[in-house]
Write a structure and sequence with these properties.
- This protein is mainly α.
- The chain has one domain.
- Helix content is 73%, strand content 0%.
- The protein contains nine helices and no strands.
- α2 crosses α4 and α6 runs antiparallel to α8.
- It is elongated, with a radius of gyration of 17 Å.
Length: 195
């Protein structure tokens, strides 16, 4: 399998990251609401614990769209996808250390590690938009921690909005590519969604 074919399979199987960004955006939105109207402990717990359910929730959402939600055995990028998925939970001690030093740094630190986790998606999906997502989250997290208003929930609201935006961009970037595939070569085809 050529790299371009492997990347195309990743893009179409995961709809350009649409469902993953949507699920993540919903989680960050719920955490932002708890950070604003609940307690920091509730908001942090929801984001950290809920993060472990992003992959199964994404799989469920892909199945609801009619996607297989997985890669073929022939695709060498399936191992990279698995490795990239583990980078975020393994980075949580850094986020925890930042929050222990200064609670307002929890979301900015999480934004930085989340953004860095998206950088390998540029190669995995063959989509440069993930470089922009990385830059926005890393740059935004750094700015909020060093120059921004020290409002605990702000990073969560910003991240939720950015993830929703990139969910839409991912869908738009691959919708034509998915529709253009012959029905015999696609595992399944998502319905046409108007965004």
């Amino acid at each position: 399998m050529l790299v371009a074919d492997a990347q195309r399979e990743v893009r179409t199987a995961f709809v350009g990251g649409f469902m993953g960004q949507l699920v993540s955006g919903l989680l960050w939105l719920a955490s932002a609401a708890l950070a604003t109207w609940g307690t920091p402990r509730q908001a942090i717990t929801l984001l950290v614990v809920g993060g472990f359910f992003i992959f199964p929730s994404t799989q469920l959402g892909l199945k609801l769209l009619g996607q297989a939600g997985g890669l073929s055995r022939e695709n060498p990028l399936r191992w990279l996808a698995m490795q990239v998925a583990f980078t975020l939970p393994l980075s949580l001690p850094v986020v925890g250390g930042a929050a222990l030093h200064r609670l307002e740094w929890f979301y900015p630190a999480f934004m930085i590690v989340l953004g860095a986790h998206y950088l390998p998606f540029v190669f995995l999906y063959g989509m440069r938009m993930f470089a922009a997502l990385c830059a926005i989250l890393v740059g935004g997290g750094f700015w909020l921690a060093t120059r921004g208003p020290q409002v605990f929930s702000l990073g969560a609201w910003v991240t939720a909005a950015v993830l929703f935006l990139f969910a839409a961009l991912g869908w738009l970037a691959v919708a034509g590519e998915i529709r253009a595939q012959p029905a015999t070569t696609t595992r399944s085809r998502p319905p046409d969604l108007a965004l």
